[in-house]
C-alpha cells in the first residue's frame, strides 16, 4: 500500500470535497479519484459513497481515516527521528523573537561561518522554552526569559530599549500623548512581571495604544511611515536605519518622566545537559557587540 494514498484519503475526509482536496494535493480531480479507488481495491472496502452532488464517508471509511491518521503521525515521528541521526555537531536550530530574527540574524549570518543547514524558528516567550525542552530547537535567544527546571540561561548581553518614531514625526507631541503600536501577544510567567512582548513597563506608564500587531516588523513599518511610536531595542533601530533612506529612519524619543531608561538582559537558552556549540557561542558574541 502506498502511503500517499492514505494521505490523499485523509485530505479528502478533512475537506469533505473531492475538488478542494485535489487542489490542496496539487492533483487533478481524476488523479485523486483514481488514487481513492486503488486504496479501496487494496483494502477491499468502500470508503466513500455518493451523497447528492457530493460524497459522504462510509462508516468503514471513517475507521480507515482514524487508523490512517495514527499511522501517518507515527510515520512522521519515525522520519524526524531518522533525520536527526544524520545531524552533525555543527548543525544548529535557533529560536528567537521575530523582531530579533528580522534584523539581527542577517548580520549574524553575514559575519560568521554559518553551519549548514541552519534552521531559524520564531517563538514568543514560554513557547520558545517549551521548544527547547521538546528538542525542537537547540538554542534560544530571549530578553524575556521564562524559567524552567530543565533549562540553563546564559547571560550574553545587556541591551537598551528605546521609544522610536519616524524622523521628523510628532515633533510637538509629548511622549505621554504619542500613539503607540504594541504587540498583541501577551507574556505569561516572566519573573520581571512584564506583560507585553516588547517589554514595556505598563505598570509604570500605560501607553496610548493606536495599533496592535502580531509581528513587530509590521509595527516598525507603521512607525517608519510616521503613524505611531514603537518600543524596540536600540540596536534593532540602528540596524533598521542602516537599510533604509533617511525619509524612513527612526529617531529616539525621551522616556516619560515617570519611567527610567529600560535595559534588558539577553540570554542564550539551552538544555542544562547540553553545551552550546561553537556557532551558538559566536551568536552570543555578535549580539553582545551590537550597539
List the keywords:
single chain, 291 residues, alpha/beta, Arc Repressor Mutant, subunit A, D-Maltodextrin-Binding Protein, domain 2, 2 domains, seven-stranded mixed β-sheet, two-stranded antiparallel sheet, 9 helices, 39% helix
Short characterization:
The protein has helices at 3-15, 18-25, 29-43, 59-85, 98-111, 127-133, 216-224, 234-242, 278-289, and strands spanning 48-51, 54-57, 92-96, 118-122, 139-142, 151-166, 179-183, 208-213, 230-233, 250-253, 263-271. It has 291 residues and is α/β, with parallel strands linked by helices.
Architecture overview:
It is a single chain. The protein is of the alpha/beta class. The protein has 2 domains: 3-85, Winged helix-like DNA-binding domain superfamily/Winged helix DNA-binding domain (Arc Repressor Mutant, subunit A, Orthogonal Bundle); 92-289, 3-Layer(aba) Sandwich (D-Maltodextrin-Binding Protein, domain 2), CATH 3.40.190. 39% of the residues lie in helices and 23% in strands. The protein is built from 9 helices and 11 strands. The chain has helices spanning 3-15, 18-25, 29-43, 59-85, 98-111, 127-133, 216-224, 234-242, 278-289, and strands at 48-51, 54-57, 92-96, 118-122, 139-142, 151-166, 179-183, 208-213, 230-233, 250-253, 263-271. The strands form 3 sheets. Strands 3, 4, 5, 6, 9, 10 and 11 form a 7-stranded mixed β-sheet that branches. Strands 1-2 form a two-stranded antiparallel sheet. The protein has a two-stranded parallel sheet with strand order 7-8. β1 and β2 form a beta hairpin. α1 crosses α3, α1 packs across α4 (59-85) and α2 crosses α3 (29-43). The longest helix is centred in the first third of the chain and has 27 residues, at 59-85. The protein is elongated and about 75 Å long.
Amino acid at each position: 500500500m502506498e502511503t500517499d494514498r492514505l494521505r490523499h484519503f485523509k485530505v479528502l475526509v478533512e475537506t469533505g470535497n473531492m475538488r478542494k482536496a485535489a487542489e490542496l494535493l496539487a492533483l487533478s480531480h481524476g488523479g485523486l479519484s483514481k488514487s481513492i479507488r486503488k486504496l479501496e481495491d487494496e483494502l477491499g472496502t468502500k470508503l466513500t459513497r455518493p451523497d447528492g452532488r457530493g460524497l459522504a464517508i462510509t462508516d468503514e471509511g471513517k475507521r480507515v481515516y482514524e487508523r490512517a491518521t495514527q499511522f501517518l503521525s507515527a510515520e512522521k515521528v519515525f522520519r524526524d527521528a531518522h533525520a536527526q541521526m544524520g545531524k552533525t555537531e555543527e548543525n544548529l536550530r535557533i529560536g528567537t523573537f521575530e523582531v530579533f530574527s528580522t534584523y539581527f540574524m542577517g548580520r549574524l549570518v553575514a559575519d560568521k561561518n554559518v553551519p549548514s543547514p541552519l534552521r531559524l524558528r520564531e517563538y514568543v516567550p514560554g513557547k520558545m522554552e517549551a521548544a527547547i525542552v521538546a528538542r525542537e530547537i537547540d538554542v534560544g535567544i530571549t530578553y524575556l526569559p521564562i524559567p524552567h527546571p530543565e533549562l540553563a540561561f546564559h547571560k550574553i548581553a545587556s541591551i537598551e530599549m528605546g521609544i522610536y518614531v519616524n524622523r521628523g514625526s510628532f515633533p510637538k507631541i509629548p511622549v505621554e500623548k504619542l500613539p503607540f503600536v504594541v504587540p498583541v501577544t501577551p507574556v505569561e510567567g516572566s519573573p520581571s512581571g512584564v506583560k507585553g512582548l516588547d517589554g514595556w513597563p505598563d505598570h509604570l506608564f500605560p501607553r496610548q495604544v493606536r495599533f496592535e500587531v502580531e509581528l513587530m516588523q509590521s509595527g516598525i513599518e507603521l512607525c517608519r511611515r510616521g503613524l505611531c511610536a514603537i518600543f524596540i531595542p536600540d540596536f534593532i533601530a540602528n540596524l533598521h536605519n542602516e537599510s533604509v533612506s533617511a525619509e524612513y529612519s527612526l529617531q529616539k524619543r525621551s522616556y516619560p518622566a515617570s519611567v527610567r531608561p529600560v535595559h534588558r538582559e539577553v540570554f542564550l537558552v539551552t538544555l542544562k545537559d547540553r553545551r552550546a556549540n561553537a556557532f551558538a557561542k559566536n551568536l552570543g558574541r555578535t549580539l553582545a557587540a551590537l550597539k
